Queue: 3 jobs
Job 1
Amino acid sequence: MAVAGDASPTTARDSGTWKDAAIAAVPAWLTARAVVLAALGFARYFADELHPAREVVVHTVGDGLFAWDGAWYADIASHGYGGLSRDALRFFPGFPLFGRAIGIVVGDRVALVLIANVAALLAAMLLYRLVRWERGDPALATRAAWFLSIAPPAFVFVMAYSDALAVLLVIATFFAMRRRSWWWAAAAAAVVGVTRPTGVLLALPVLIEACRGFSVAPVRERIGRVVAVTAAPLGALAYLGWVGATRDDLLLPYSVQATHRLHGEFANPLSTLWHAVEGLSDHHVGTALHVPWLAVMVALVVVVFVRWPLSYGVFAAVVVASSVTSTNLDSLERYGLFAFPLVLALADLTEHRLVERIVFVVLPVALFGYAVLAFSGLYVP
């Protein structure tokens, strides 16, 4: 089977129209929101009827769309980092800065939820156009848009989380660089760098694409390629430089994240995996759920390398690898969603009609289940 990378990325291709993308993505987007809001309602009913003793359940159910990291982003958007503990520094400022800007009109908290949900819709639409441009297959593009929207960890796309914005920007970077629009790729990558701690990983796939035909490219285009490669690291460095100037520790956002009560320091992935397996015997449901997902993600990485251009496979691989090198696998599935090529691999594997129908039933059910667990404090998103 021919893969998208076999043809020159500069070849004229049909990416469809934004109307085509909307027709494919809007139903998926609406379905995901209906499922997640139903899950929140169910979790609140559960908490009201059973009066759970665990304080975390009451807390997360009460916070709703601002549970877990959402509360941090809301506080940063409203008050900045100055009045918060240093733990807030692990949340990069891109998302709350957008929230503060739009919050002038609608309020900071409403703005964050609005940005996340609009970004989720745009990400699905842009993914449709990217897949159609790469493969010329509207059905494949539609599946990809749906899977991105209803994947089990995609409930965070409905919450006040930065993930939807980050995924949108990563897809935009790929779409731009594959079409050789290097300055647009640089702009999107720079914002990724200031939005997510792992945004710097985007430099690797951009480097792979930038090296292709570099020697014969015009001088201005070469400059654009170099800028695009460095954009995400420079975006991250801008934030880290501010942290270093105000807190005297350039790497504080990463060192805070590496504390034992969060993700812990760098660890052997095998020991991390074993720790997750042990969680099943200790009735830590959220921890044990990571194990099968990691196996699925590794398998999908292999599919990406086989069926998609090298830059897609490398990006998926480094994101998954970076997610398993700490002392626990908390948020693994959400981090995996950042590696959007995994969604493309799943879309590739569900071409058969029966398989497609099964997946379209399983994913919303799993989305509902994961959202209930997260809102109930039993799963760390």
Job 2
Amino acid sequence: MNRQRGMTMIELMVSLAIVMVVIGAATTAYLKLLRTYRTQGKLAESYLANLTGLEMLRYDIETAGFGLPVGLAAGATYSEANDSTVQYYNPANLNDSPNNAPRAIAHLNNSGANNSDILTIKSSAANLFNDPTSKKWSMILAAGSNPFYPANPTVKLWGITVLDPVMDFTINDNFIVLDNNGILQPAAGQWSCYTFNTALPNGGYYANASSLPYPTSNKNVYYIYGLDNSTNNPAGAHRMPFNRVDYYLDKILGPPSQFPNSCAASTFTLYRSTINQVDGTLNKAPLIDCVRDFQVAFGLATNLDGNVNSWVQTLAGMSAAQIQQQVREVRVFLLYQEGLGDTAKLPGQGFSNSGSSDFRFSGTLNLGDQDTGNLSSFNPATGPNYNAKDSQYRWKVLEMDIKPMNLNSN
């Protein structure tokens, strides 16, 4: 006689309920773990991307004014930015053309998206990440300065016997010439961009300097600074005797969209855009995503002794010479979204609105203060365009203190 019996319906349902509870708990734990993994992964990804972008910003500010003419010959003019495709500012508002000396740093205060700032850097090196020629520079010596070409002016080589692959000019590199006072050397009354037609070294000098402007006294030297080359500028046209890069907030929604859907609706992308030498349009490059605000402050040495004694939030009204002589430090502040949002929670029930420990509010900007005066924009709970959904995201303020290396008080 078979004494085995099966499970009753009640026992089966109880067992099934227990299994479902276990599976549900495991699923909840797994989803929480997956969300944590995605959040931490996004934090690491954002950190690396932000680090790369901020190093580019740091480099641009440090090289502001490198190879920049302090003036143009009489009658010489140039063109600059001409682009109407940016939503929140007009790049032409930061132009110094047609005949003013270019400012190493130009700035629009609270004039961009979310009342953010716009920062413009002008130098020959501002195009370095697109064209390595903009890193190159050298000197033109007067005739009689060396034994190899005693009758001609000569250009110094850094590689001496062979061309230095990084610093020495090569064929089809475009460059400008400045005299020993920093004045752009013209051709037929206009400024001119010159092109190397050969780069044959001989005893530490180029062999083709006789066709360039040159000093008439061996007590002086002229300087040459690279702008680009024929590979990156096939047309060979140059609107500006320098390169320029603009930093600003924008949001390109497409189609196709260039804005990540993981960012809070109140954020933007920080763009780094170089100005096209051919037509003045912006070569737009997204740098850092999910940025709520971008602010800049400037430390000035108004007594011209090199020591910062005044902080300002705008360079409005300052000439190119004053910026060159007085700007000693630049502080950049970014309010940005850190990692993914906790959108599973209802608006107003997510992260704290007070921000991270990086927030340091004081209300004014002075020598002892590390923040800009427009501090309300750095608080997600009171800043521009704040809404309850912003509490579903982590917010952080990043500060950078940068010293321009090519500005001086002479």
Job 3
Amino acid sequence: MVMGLLSNAARKIVFWTYPRTSWQWDVLCLLILVFIFLTPKGWFANPGFRRHRTVVIAADVVGGQADRAGLERRAREVADAPSGKVTEVRERRDAQGKLVAYEVDIR
């Protein structure tokens, strides 16, 4: 008897056979509103996702043999992010293999 009552209630909830004017509908709407307005923003924050930007700096702007510190400083200036963290520096070369620019990722 108890098992039949539980399975009947579960079936009604899954397939939602309750009419709009029932108290069950009101409880569902209330639960949805509580979830929307009382859920902390931190539950949906993705710590792995941070806004980052890729800056391209021409090789002749920083010189042929640019040091990483100089590249990072220049990339922060271009990105207007003085406290940004440089995560990666990549060289961009043309078809002949000549160094053309640097791609710098900043978070």
